[in-house]
């Protein structure tokens, strides 16, 4: 049953309970990166909020606040108002901020990233560049 919390249908566990054994099997070395991809409003944030409950997981969310406040201007809002004019600039900035996020020092054994730098490049930057 899928409701407010993601539930593993086979075991009746929440996503945090299902994910915990993966974290516990980690044996040192670098962190394990896991990327959550999906359309807008597909439940990525809900899943990430569940995974925040695990102490040894670091959540790296999209830096939407940066996109909405670039030197006092809302670049994301401009892109939605006139995507032909602002789309390429916006997605280039998205790519830059996502690269910064992906290079951030991670202390936890597992890092869960909301979208990857590859989705920013291949799905969003190339498309507006062609228009």
Give a short summary of the structure.
With 131 residues, this protein is α/β, with parallel strands linked by helices. 49% of the residues lie in helices and 14% in strands. The chain has one domain (7-130): P-loop containing nucleotide triphosphate hydrolases (Rossmann fold, 3-Layer(aba) Sandwich).
Word description of this protein:
It is built from six helices and five strands; from the N terminus they run E-E-H-E-H-E-H-H-H-E-H. It has 131 residues and is an alpha/beta fold. The protein has one domain: P-loop containing nucleotide triphosphate hydrolases (Rossmann fold, 3-Layer(aba) Sandwich). The strands form two sheets. A three-stranded parallel β-sheet has the order 3-5-4, covered by helices on one side. It has a two-stranded antiparallel sheet with strand order 1-2. The longest helix is centred in the C-terminal third of the chain and has 20 residues. The N terminus is likely disordered.
Key traits:
131 residues; single chain; Deoxyribonucleoside_kinase; deoxynucleoside kinase activity; alpha/beta; disordered N terminus; 14% strand; Rossmann fold; Thymidine kinase 2, mitochondrial; DNK_dom; kinase; 3-stranded parallel β-sheet
Lateral strand order in the biggest sheet: 3-5-4
**Number of helical segments?**
6
Percentage beta strand = 5-15%
Could you say how many structural domains there are in total? Answer: 1
**Record field, number of beta strands:** 5
Would you identify the CATH H-level superfamily? Answer: P-loop containing nucleotide triphosphate hydrolases
Main structural class: alpha/beta
Biggest sheet layout: 3 strands, parallel
Into which percent range does the helicity of residues fall? Answer: 40-55%
Listing every helix as H and every strand as E from the N terminus to the C terminus, the arrangement reads EEHEHEHHHEH
- Low-pLDDT runs of 5+ residues are 1-10
**What's the architecture, going by CATH?**
3-Layer(aba) Sandwich
Radius of gyration: 17 Å
N-end to C-end Cα span: 42 Å
How confident overall, as mean pLDDT?
Answer: 77
| Rough outline | elongated
Q: Can you identify the CATH class?
A: Alpha Beta
Q: Could you please say which CATH topology applies here? A: Rossmann fold
GO molecular function: deoxynucleoside kinase activity
Pfam families: dNK (PF01712)
Keywords: Kinase, Transferase
Protein name: Thymidine kinase 2, mitochondrial
């Amino acid at each position: 049953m899928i409701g407010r919390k993601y539930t593993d249908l086979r075991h009746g566990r929440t996503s945090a309970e299902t994910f915990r054994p993966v974290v516990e099997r980690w044996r040192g070395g670098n962190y394990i990166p896991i990327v959550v991809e999906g359309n807008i409003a597909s439940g990525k944030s809900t899943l990430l909020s569940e995974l925040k409950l695990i102490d040894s997981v670091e959540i790296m969310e999209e830096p939407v606040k940066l996109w909405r406040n670039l030197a006092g201007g809302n670049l994301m809002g401009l892109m939605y108002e006139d995507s032909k004019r602002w789309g390429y600039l916006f997605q280039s900035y998205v790519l830059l901020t996502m690269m910064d996020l992906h290079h951030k020092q991670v202390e936890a054994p597992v890092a869960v990233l909301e979208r990857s730098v590859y989705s920013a490049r291949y799905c969003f930057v190339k498309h507006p560049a062609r228009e």
